[in-house]
Design brief:
By secondary structure, the protein is α+β, with helices and mostly antiparallel strands. The protein folds into 2 domains: 90 residues, Arc Repressor Mutant, subunit A (Orthogonal Bundle); 50 residues, Dna Ligase, domain 1, CATH 3.30.1490. 44% of the residues lie in helices and 13% in strands. Strands 4-3-5 form a 3-stranded mixed sheet, with no helix packed on it. Strands 1-2 form a two-stranded antiparallel sheet. It is globular, with a radius of gyration of 17 Å. 15% of the residues are buried. The protein binds zinc ion (2 copies). The site of one zinc ion has 8 residues, from helix 8.
């Protein structure tokens, strides 16, 4: 497959994956679930359930936090969203299923996506491979984002 960022981030494509995986997993596609997924793929900040809730309530005022929270957990179970590596804070979700890496600001907790071919091609160390089965690889850089660096 040709590496193409536009295809990977195409929202129509992501909605198609959403419909297909929901159907394959016997998950009913409700307007609320669709709206939550749409909100998630629009977000570029790896939002928490609370972040998604605060945004979606503007569109669906009667939705409950519990629904949003449960739905996001379901999305991660059926593989249409990833839970970003946690740091003892609220779970944060990532709709981008393609291989990419993260820069996390240790001060403001912003998580920025980046792509790097060398990181993509990192090999799992042999002793790790003997003991475990790695399903994915992700490099996480930590430090200060450009905003926090300036302060
Ligand atoms: Zn920062
Ligand atoms: Zn990400």
């Amino acid at each position: 497959m040709v590496y193409n960022m536009d295809i990977k981030t195409d929202k129509g494509e992501m909605m198609a994956v959403f419909f297909r995986r929901s159907r394959d997993n016997g998950l009913k596609i409700t307007p609320q679930r669709s709206a939550i997924y749409q909100e998630l793929i629009q977000a570029k900040d790896h939002p928490s359930a609370d972040d998604v809730y605060k945004r979606i309530i503007k569109k669906i005022p009667n939705i409950s936090f519990d629904t949003v929270n449960r739905t996001l957990l379901t999305f991660s179970k059926i593989g249409i969203a990833n839970i970003v590596e946690g740091y003892g804070q609220a779970k944060r979700y990532d709709p981008d299923l393609e291989t990419h890496h993260h820069f996390r600001c240790m001060k403001c907790n912003t998580i920025i996506d980046f792509h790097n071919k060398e990181y993509d091609n990192l090999k799992v160390p042999e002793d790790m491979r003997k003991q475990f089965t790695a399903m994915s690889k992700k490099v996480v850089l930590e430090g200060l984002c450009s905003k926090c660096k300036r302060r």
